UniProtKB/TrEMBL annotation:
It comes from the Bacteria. Its EC number is 2.7.11.1. The gene is spoIIAB. It catalyses: L-seryl-[protein] + ATP = O-phospho-L-seryl-[protein] + ADP + H(+); L-threonyl-[protein] + ATP = O-phospho-L-threonyl-[protein] + ADP + H(+). SMART domains: HATPase_c (SM00387). Belongs to the anti-sigma-factor family. It comes from Paenibacillus apis. This is Anti-sigma F factor. Residues 39-144 form the Histidine kinase/HSP90-like ATPase domain. Binds to sigma F and blocks its ability to form an RNA polymerase holoenzyme (E-sigma F). Phosphorylates SpoIIAA on a serine residue. This phosphorylation may enable SpoIIAA to act as an anti-anti-sigma factor that counteracts SpoIIAB and thus releases sigma F from inhibition.
């Protein structure tokens, strides 16, 4: 199979909950050139959904004037995803990464977003600055369906 080289895309949208599904579908469509399995597509859609939802709910506190930026980079068989906001930032990243931790218990949030991202991806990194926003970078090697069945 002809392996793709390097390709990238960037997307910006308003921090509105209705844009979360748009973000998931867009990233899935971009990554489809690697011929991922359904499980891989589901994992990628899930991590994008979690990251975008975190930006909207926690980063911007539901303010639709905020901007969420997603970047995707394909190098060979690996995709690197970045989700960034310029929202309030995270006071304690290590605490926020703990399973079941949520800063918004009144919204009945599960507190599993970062845990899901970390478990579904090969690499996961969060950087944040109070008042300056949060950046999530994730990397996953895609094993194409064609390679699985040959």
């Amino acid at each position: 199979m002809n392996q793709p080289g390097r390709n990238f895309m960037s997307l910006q949208f308003a921090a509105r909950s209705e844009n979360e599904s748009f973000a998931r579908v867009t990233v899935a469509a971009f990554v489809s050139q690697l011929d991922p399995t359904m499980d891989e597509i589901t994992d990628l859609k899930t991590v994008i959904s979690e990251a975008v939802t975190n930006s909207i709910i926690h980063g911007y506190d539901g303010d639709p004037e905020g901007i969420v930026t997603i970047s995707a980079l394909i190098e060979g068989d690996t995709v690197t995803l970045s989700v960034e906001d310029k929202g309030r930032g995270i006071e304690d990243v290590e605490l926020a990464k703990q399973p079941l931790f949520t800063s918004k218990p009144e919204l009945e949030r599960s507190g599993m977003g970062f845990t899901i991202m970390e478990n579904f991806m090969d690499e996961f990194e969060v950087s944040s600055e109070l008042g300056g926003g949060t950046s999530i970078r994730m990397k996953k090697r895609i094993v194409s369906k064609t390679a699985l069945y040959n």
